[in-house]
Each structure stands twice: as C-alpha cells, then as structure tokens.
Specification:
Length: 309
C-alpha cells in the first residue's frame, strides 16, 4: 500500500516529569511524533526505523499500531537498545535528557533502508536529529532522500538542531546539503538563526528558498509562522493559548502542515491549520498524548475565525 507520509528516524520512549514529581511514561522522538500527528489528522503514515527487542521497543510499536500507523518496516535489533529520554520542567520551560547512545535506530544505515517503501510514499519526512544520532544514520537519511527524489516524490525536512549531538559547523554543512535536496523545509526560528547567522525571519526564508525548497514554513513561537514559496509569502499569527508542555509542539506542527498540504496544495491553508494543531498540542503533557484530532483542530479554527470577525 502506498502511503501519504513515511517518517524515517528514531522513536523514543518518554518519561515526562509531572507537578508532583512523578514521571509519566509516554512516547516521543520527532519523526514518531510527526507520524502520530499526521495519522490523527487523516494521513496514511508509516515509520522506518530500528528498535531494540526490549519492552520499550514493544511499547513503541504497539502505540504506533494503535494510532493506525504502518509498522511493517520497523526492524528489531537484539544487540542494541531502544532509546529513551526524560523531560523536566521549570520556569525556563522544558528540558531534555537522553539515553540513546548506541541505540538500534542509530544503526539505520543506507543498506537497511527499505527502498521500495520509501519510493512508493507520496512524501518522505526526515529531520536533523535523524542525521545527528550517528554517521551511519546520516548516510541512511541521505540515501532515503535520494530514493524519494529519484522517484519524483516530495521530501520534507525539519532541522531540529541538537547541538548536544554534533557541532554547529558539521550540522550546518550536513543540514544545508539536505535542505538543497528537499521540497518542504520546516525549521524553527532558533534553529534557523543558529544555522544562517541571522534572526530576521524574512532573511532566513530568503536564504533557504535560494537553496532549493519550494516551501519554507518557519515557526516563530508565540509570533506564529512565516510560510513562503518563491511566489507568495504569508505571516500567520499564533492562536493564543495557555501552554502546559511544549514537548513535541514543532512535530505536531509538522504533521499537521504536511497532512493539509498534501490534501490541498495550499501553503497558507496548511500553515493556518498547523498553527491551530500546535495550539492544541501544547495544552497537555507529553510529545504525542495531546496531539489533536482533525475535529478539534477544525473546531478551534472556526472559533478563532468567528472571534476575529
């Protein structure tokens, strides 16, 4: 079955600190979060990765299947573990600590990419984290991107810059080479400022459009999103909401944007829809638990439009 979106990278098991000091078990990993968000909004999605033959890997596969996500190309490894991470919260926001070194997903090299699966999907989604976890994984991402491009299908990319995993100079070189080969770029402002050397949103969008993507959707936090193509440019304000936990918010945006763009081909509609999905996603704890369904997003958009009138 040809899927709408195939996400390639590393799902993780999440332990999210609660106000009483307990840790709530959940699920994360940027590509997994994106796949869940897209599936809940109506896209047919699949995940390509490797997981350990451990209880954490079992839990992730079970969750993805429960969300209606195709897991047929998830390989299991009895010699490497499934990665995990912890989320803590304070006045400065949320903070991550990872236990992923030597994980099964970091062994997903070019020779382990299911070529037919990637070539058949309408869109391949990858991220900077998928490349940063190991050199093998970086080569695997590049191979998958080439497969999708050669098949004439779309490639989307979220920078998701993690300087704990690799130095900025290396990240910039690898990421910009990948961005030049992608169709849809989904960076956050902080990432893009570090990678380009400018914090001006319009300058960032100009820079990246010149590299080659046909669409750039730059998320601006509380300022919303700037979405652009070579022919049009729109600023979409954020929908005001009380944030509980921003873990996975950018991934929820990605899943919503890609789903709506594939359905409509309209970048403004996709950005507006994704803004609403993101506003709902930050109202609960966990990277995937609060990711919304389409009905909730449409309802929020209707309310917001009505209030704006």
């Amino acid at each position: 079955m040809a899927l709408d979106i195939v996400c390639l990278g590393e799902p993780l098991l999440e332990f999210n600190e609660q106000t009483d000091g307990r840790y709530l078990k959940g699920f994360g990993g940027d590509i997994s979060n994106c796949a869940v968000a897209a599936a809940r909004l109506g896209a047919q999605t699949g995940v390509v990765t490797r997981l350990g033959t451990d209880s954490f890997g079992d839990a992730i596969v079970a969750m993805l299947r429960e969300e209606g996500i195709d897991t047929s190309r998830i390989a299991r490894d009895d010699s490497a573990p499934t990665g995990i991470y912890f989320v803590t919260h304070d006045a400065d926001g949320h903070h991550f600590e990872y236990r992923r070194a030597g994980s099964a997903a970091s062994l997903l090299d070019a020779g382990r990419i299911p070529a037919d699966y990637v070539r058949d999907a309408r869109l391949l989604h990858v991220s900077g984290i998928s490349q940063a976890i190991s050199r093998k994984a970086a080569k695997g991402v590049s191979h998958a991107v080439a497969l999708a491009r050669n098949a004439g299908h779309l490639v989307s990319y979220d920078t998701n810059l993690r300087l704990q995993l690799w130095p900025l100079r290396t990240a910039r070189k690898v990421m910009h080479a990948t961005i030049a080969a992608c169709d849809i770029l989904l960076p956050g402002l902080d990432d893009a400022a570090a990678l380009t050397g400018t914090a001006d949103p319009d300058a960032i969008v100009d820079y990246y459009l010149k590299l080659g993507p046909r669409v750039v959707a730059l998320t601006l936090g509380e300022a919303g999103v700037l979405v652009a193509t070579p022919q049009e440019r729109h600023r979409v304000p954020a929908i005001p909401t009380e944030a509980v936990d921003a873990t996975g918010a950018g991934d929820a945006f990605d899943g919503a944007f890609l789903t709506e763009y594939l359905a409509t081909g309209d970048v403004l509609r996709a950005a507006t829809f994704a803004n609403a999905a993101c506003a709902l996603a930050i109202q609960g704890y966990g990277a995937t638990a609060a990711s919304p369904r389409r009905e909730a997003v449409e309802q929020l958009l209707a309310q917001h439009t009505s209030q704006g009138e």
